[in-house]
Amino acid sequence: MAQTEEKRLPRHLAFIMDGNGRWAQERGLSRSAGHRAGAERLREVCYWVLDYGIRHMSVYAFSTENWRRSKQEVNGLMRLIPDFFQRYAAELRELGVTVHFVGDLEELSPSTQKIIEKMRATPPDQPEMDLYICLNYGGRREIVRAVQKALRSPDPLALADQLTEERFRDFLYLPGMPDPDLIVRTAGEQRLSNFWLWQAAYAEFYYSPAYWPDFGQADLAQALETYSHRQRRYGGEKSVDAHH
Ligand code: FPP
Q: For the residues 228-236, what does the mean pLDDT come to?
C-alpha cells in the first residue's frame, strides 16, 4: 500500500538530552564541558530536524530537579543557556525557528530573562519550526501551576463543574502546542523524568544508546524510521493516523 510506503514523521519531536556528563567524563573533561558540547549538538539537531520538515521540536534543557546538582554545574548551565541563545538567536531566526521557553521562567537569572524577552519580541519573518526549550520545567510543577490558575479563575466552583481534559489544557504553559508524538531519550536511560507529563499520554518512546553530544544524523534517522513503523492506537482498536 502506498500509504505504508510513505514515511510517517512525528508532528512534534521531543528530546531528553541525556549523557552530557558521561560524555565529558569519558574524555576527562568537566561536566560543564559536556553541557557545552551538548548545546552545540542541539544547534546541529535543529538543522537536521528542519530538513525533515518537522514543525514542532522540544528539548528538556533544565528540570525543576536539576537545581539539586552541584553549584558549579548549575552555575555552568545557567551561564551556558543565555550565552547559547545570545550567540545563536539571529541564526535560529534566519532559519525560521520560533523559540518558546517553557517553565517557571521568573526564577531564572536576569540575563536569561532578558534574552528570552528579546527572542519573544523578534520572531522569525518566515516561521518554519517551533522549538520549545523546557527550562526550569517539571511536568508535575506544570500541572500544579495549571490547578492554581484554574482556582484563581473568577468562578472556580462553576469551572469545577465544567472542567474537561480539553479545558484543563488551557491552563498549561502552552495550550496551543501539539502533544509530542515521539520522545527520544539519549544515553540509554528509559524514563520520562518529569518531562511533558500531561502531554506525553500517547507519545511513542525511542531510546538511543548514544550520549547526547554524540547523537548524530544517523541516530536521528534511525529514531524516525522506527517511529514510522509504529502503530498508534490511542487506546482504540484500529491504527489511527494523526499525522498532518
Ligand atoms: C543531562 O545530561 C542533560 C542536562 C541536565 C542538561 C541538558 C542541557 C544541554 C544539552 C545544553 C544546554 C541547553 C541549551 C538549550 C542551550 P547529564 O548531565 O545528566 O548526563 P549524565 O547522565 O551522563 O550525567
A: 87
